[in-house]
Specification:
This protein is an alpha/beta fold. It contains 20 helices and eight strands. GO terms for molecular function: 3'-5' exonuclease activity; nucleic acid binding; nucleotide binding; ribonuclease D activity.
Length: 408
Amino acid sequence: MTDETTIVPLLEPREGIPPVIEDRAGLAGAVRAFAAGTGPVAVDAERASGYRYSGRAYLVQLRRAGAGSALIDPVRCPDLSELDAALDGAEVVLHAASQDLPCLAELGFHPRELFDTELAGRLLGYERVGLGMMVENVLGFRLEKGHSAADWSTRPLPEDWLRYAALDVEVLVELRDVLHEELKASGKLEWAREEFAWVLAHKSPVPRSDPWRRTSGIHKVRSARGLAVVRELWTLRDALAREADLAPGRMLPDAAIITAAVELPRTTKALTDITPFTGRSARRHLREWLAAINTARALPESGLPQPSAPGDGPPPANRWMDRDPVAARRLAAARTVVAALADEHHMPTENLLQPDAVRRLTWEPPPVIDDGTVAARLRELGAREWQIGLTAHPVAKALARLETEGEV
């Protein structure tokens, strides 16, 4: 931990703010420079989350020894495949890689070797793993994070935003180097490599089934008819937001969908009594919103959604004792084991073993519980080999003990 009195504000990139690359000639120059550079390549991407529907990148930042830093406008330079080819074999350093890999892949940039500084921080037991806090605690520099939630689709990008963006990769490789040594010293380097490889292999997000069920506040909707309204309004909002490339919440807030599902307005007037429907974007589509509500109202009983999505895994853990007390005891035993192991290895429980894997294992355990069957089940559920090596035996032992004692 860095002493607060020794922390140095990082205010300017070492070589100044690089010019934004906006054409093929500039990109070709960056490709040559980074191909000639050495060592790992720090990469970051800025999106317009909360402003735009798409998750595309609106700025890509890179830094490498011997090449300096580069800022690339992917709106003007949407194909980074030549840069990707030039960096084949180089380790790419990202912070919270799973957030940036999909938008980088859209540009033709596909890292083959990864070091994720956020994930490394988690495995090492750092309590706060945001980039700013990691740089501060590990390197003793303070980053300005004031523009992290900015609308990066803005053009032209303000100079202070570009400074912020360049600084995000300024010391990322240095952070990687220190964390690499800490992973090595703690015996966790191979664990980290497995994690990084898993992140690369799963960089494409898996589409959610029934994504409308994640509407904030949906627990307030008590009827199947109300759930149908949520589904119809969510689906319409998603289509309209996609067409306008506007974040869905800016088109219509979740709270408006939930209120409409509870109140079931029948007229445009009743709809506009729900304040969020009077917003500029929402007001343009009042007839369509009302039509969606009427569609849900007209559905036959057989067309209404069930209270919970079928086949999407175990129920919420707080319902287990009522639904299956035996499974609830298995879950409690497994969680106790995983929490103790996580504490022993100084990392969050969710990084030692994914909570969903623990739930699924204990809700539907193997017919015969032993080290091999538990390990096989965890492997099916996506656990990495290092996780299985640490948890399969103690979890199997705990579950088997319940059986022996007659509690399951």
